[in-house]
Amino acid sequence: MGFVRETCALGEIAGRLGWDQETMMAPGSAPQRAEEMAAMESVLHARKMDARVGEWLDALEGADIGEVEAAQLRLIRREFDRATKVPAKLASEIARVTSAAQGIWAEARAAENFADFAPTLEKVVALRREEADALAQGGDRYDALLQDYEPGTSAAEISTMFDNMRPRLVALRERILGSEFTPVALTRDFDIDAQMSLSNELAIGFGYDFTRGRLDKAVHPFSSGSGNDVRITTRTAAQDPFNCIYSTIHEVGHACYEQNISQDYLLTPLGRGVSMGVHESQSRIYENQIGRSAAYTSYLFAKMKDAFGDIGVADAEAFFATVNRVRSGYIRTEADEIHYNLHVMLRFDLEQQLISGALDVADLPDAWNTRFESDFGVAVDKPSNGCLQDVHWSVGLFGYFPTYSLGNLYAGCLNEAMHAAEPGLDAEFAKGDTSRATAWLAQNVQQHGGRYTSADVITRACGKEPSEAPLLAYLEEKFGRIYNL
After folding, report:
1. Which fold has domain 155-482?
2. Is residue 392 annotated as involved in ligand binding?
3. What is the pTM of this model?
4. Residue 343 annotated as binding?
5. 448 annotated binding-site participant
6. How far is the C-alpha of 327 from the C-alpha of 333, rounded, in Å?
7. Could you report the per-residue pLDDT of 233-278, keeping only the tens digit for each?
């Protein structure tokens, strides 16, 4: 395992370069950073496909080993098989282009000009198509890319899940938007420094260990790292403190997953979250089922008044409705729980078309805007509210988006099981105490890292296979209460 541990350590260093690029690096350093990232990817790719790894794996085939060792070998084999299919030059070029693309995307987004980004996105899409062809070896391109984020899942399976969810989500949205009740909206400015101070306090309350991490700002919030160096970012807007607060809680969910993985798995293939769907289940249950619950928002209401004074909301019940206000907004990361999955479904469909070649990059804005107006009833007013809002495609993360909704589905299952196993949690949430809930998640999900498959992790934690039913029941009960449905 010494060779593998060194490879994992080098991967963490590469991740730190990415974190620095998004948070601290000067814009003029981007071209050099792209070359550095390409060099790191060349080294990592060469190690992952080293012929000795294949020989070691073959030598251990059929050996009498324990469950943990077998899980390690399963993940090493998966990584080796993938690496040997992708040419080293292609892997390095993807790293170089996507590193440079992040800065180009950010500038185009700030300038509200998709044309500035389109040529770079065309390169990214072409490279990922080439990679997908190498991985699929005659199979489906998109399914091949999906395995990087949710191993063992296909686009067809996800489409079935979305087809099951969409009718009830749309019906619930129509009932909500037809309600006579309208939650109060926040209308004043909220001090940026106070937002960050409160976010730090809430992060600690949810169990984030600042002795092994830090909180910074980024254009697009994210979590980075594993084990004993897990860093998070958030963003601030003077008139939208919830953007900062809930971005922080969301990323804390990701970070706590990584921090709580067994130290026995540190710098090994098991020392990371098993899949992005399970990862997202942790961020979403922290953010939504706990952080946006009636109990926790009663605590947050008091904290907001302490931090900002009169916020223009009468009481805790009204604040609960304000936090969970349903509206057809442009931005996925700011979307309410009803619209969020509809945002993901839009991206899922469009990125499949981009990878298959059915949609050209030049036609992406029109395709996005047409679909968005159809799904949300609102015309997109500018690129940063449309196809330039997310960083994912600039860095080549095709196949990532559907795992957000899969994470919501898993979070619904886990929330149901958690409350059954740990009665009385709401009384603790109302005091800002999430420790028993987060301990249950650490024990039943997070500590295992990559030891089990994603479906097995959820099934073991919940006592039954995952389905969309708990999530939909939770949404209908919660928003039925808020909107008097």
Report:
1. Neurolysin; domain 3 (1.10.1370)
2. no
3. 0.91
4. no
5. no
6. 13
7. 999 999 999 999 999 999 999 999 999 999 999 999 999 999 999 9
